[in-house]
Write a structure and sequence with these properties.
Blueprint: E1 5-6, H1 10-22, H2 28-40, E2 46-47, E3 56-61, E4 74-81, E5 86-94, H3 101-118
Parallel strand pairs: 1-5
Antiparallel strand pairs: 2-3, 3-4, 4-5
Length: 119
């Protein structure tokens, strides 16, 4: 499988900075590693419903520096555009913080709309 470019948008960068600063200051290396892995293997994770024809996927990220496995760590929602070989991270959050998938998907939908309007 060919690698994909991971396009970090200002919308995602803001969410990521807030998460790192407020909740997981030691997690930046773990997240960077996950984004590199995603570029090498785009499409990894579970497809998320509710985004129409867009291929939106949720990936689990473990945080070894906090002793959190992938099942208890972070969730990264991203849009994969296969014909362009582009991965666009949309939203990242802690599983411990959000229990309601509807709320997360709503935030991701809003972020995706903003991201796509800026592209």
């Amino acid at each position: 499988m060919l690698e994909a470019a991971v396009y970090i948008t200002p919308v995602f960068r803001k969410t990521l900075r807030r998460l790192i600063k407020k909740e997981y200051p030691k997690s930046s290396e773990d997240i960077e590693r996950a984004l590199r892995r995603l570029g090498k293997n785009p499409g990894m994770g579970d497809r998320v419903k509710g985004f129409g024809d867009k291929e939106v996927v949720k990936m689990r990220i473990g945080l070894p520096s906090y002793r959190l496995s992938a099942s208890r760590g972070l969730r990264l929602i991203y849009n994969y555009i296969p014909y362009k070989r582009i991965v666009i991270p949309i939203h990242i959050y802690s599983k411990a913080r959000y229990r309601d998938e509807f709320e997360v998907n709503q935030q991701a939908n809003e972020a995706l709309a903003q991201i796509l309007s800026e592209l």
